[in-house]
Amino acid sequence: MSLRARLEKNALRTMLALPRGLRRRLVAFAEPLGRRDLDTDLRTVLAASSLRPPLETLPPKAARKAFSELFQLLDVPREAVAAVADHALKHDSGHFRVRVYRPLGVGDLALPGILFFHGGGHTIGSVDDYDHGCRLLANQCGAVVASVDYRLAPEHRFPAAAEDALAAWAWFTDNAVELGVDPKRLAVMGDSAGGNLAIVVAQQARRCKMPRPAVQCLVYPTTDARRKTDSMTAYGEHLGLTRSLIRYFDDHYLGDPADARHPEVSPILHRNLKTQPKTLLVVCKDPLRDEGLAYGKRLEDAGVEVTTLDYPQLIHGFYGMGGMVPAARTAVLEIFDTLGKML
């Protein structure tokens, strides 16, 4: 962690140690109205993070570094797991890696398996950024977690990330027994853009003649790149993920604006959802809220079992804030507990 990041972390911890009522009054002086129904600790974090330049003002490499620093600042502490191993994968279009975690205290049992895709608009984020969260996920769910370091835009535009996601699923299912995974208890999971890739795998597995996941866990997923929902307007400013940042990600990921209507970019446009797996859908107060709920409604209309967890006092990105925002950690643990019961 850089000196700046350590100083920021110490300053933020000092702010969070102040009485809640005092912090509420302090941040209220300068914060936008749209934040005032959020969790108090989260409001403090947002006020502090406003001193950083917006990610969309940075070139992708600098944005990735800034995103990584935020994760180090806010994420849960690093937990020990029984084993961690990186695997190099390649297919016709490129190569990437998958990091596999085996939880503590399970011996040689065959466990549920979760293929995890990180968020970041298909442009930022990495396996390393999500390392602490995947360790926690493995231990809390008692599952083998495989985290996919798919190729990022703009170096690798659509469909690179989707191709990597499907190749990772093929590898995960083919090697399930060797990895100590029960092939009948497999899930896909991701947050934001990672949720999009989890949906792509669930939708395309049958077409690709691969086993279908038993469960999908979608944490504030992007499902509709046309970006015309009410929440895109209502929650598109001052809540971390903004409309301008979404445009930044879309501009980098999509080689052609027409790709926004491709079902592997906007999976809500997929015609037949009857074969989709049991779904855990997570939403919060963010621009993607309506498209996530709309996808959940389409699944339910198709006869798919959907469990929805709604966190209106939290914002996009809370999945990686459990180290500083207790309400975020509580939500993440509830997500993991619910997912574990579904596997």
Q: What do we call the CATH topology of the largest domain? A: Rossmann fold
Q: What is the CATH-assigned architecture of the largest domain?
A: 3-Layer(aba) Sandwich
Q: For the record, what is the CATH homologous superfamily label of the largest domain? A: Alpha/Beta hydrolase fold, catalytic domain
Structural class: alpha/beta
Compose a concise summary of this entry.
The chain is built from eleven helices and eight strands. By secondary structure, it is an alpha/beta fold.
Q: Describe it for me?
A:
The two termini are 36 Å apart. Strand 5, helix 7 and strand 6 (215-219) form a beta-alpha-beta unit. This protein has 343 residues and is α/β, with parallel strands linked by helices. It has 11 helices and 8 strands. The model has no long low-confidence stretch (mean pLDDT 94). Helix content is 39%, strand content 17%. It has 2 domains: 3-57; 72-342, Alpha/Beta hydrolase fold, catalytic domain (Rossmann fold, 3-Layer(aba) Sandwich). It has an 8-stranded mixed β-sheet with strand order 1-2-4-3-5-6-7-8, with helices on both faces. It has helices at residues 3-17, 20-28, 40-49, 60-74, 131-141, 160-174, 193-204, 230-234, 243-253, 289-301, 326-342; strands spanning 83-91, 94-102, 111-117, 144-149, 181-191, 215-219, 278-284, 306-311. Helix 1 (3-17) crosses helix 4 (60-74), helix 2 (20-28) crosses helix 3 and helix 6 packs across helix 7 (193-204).
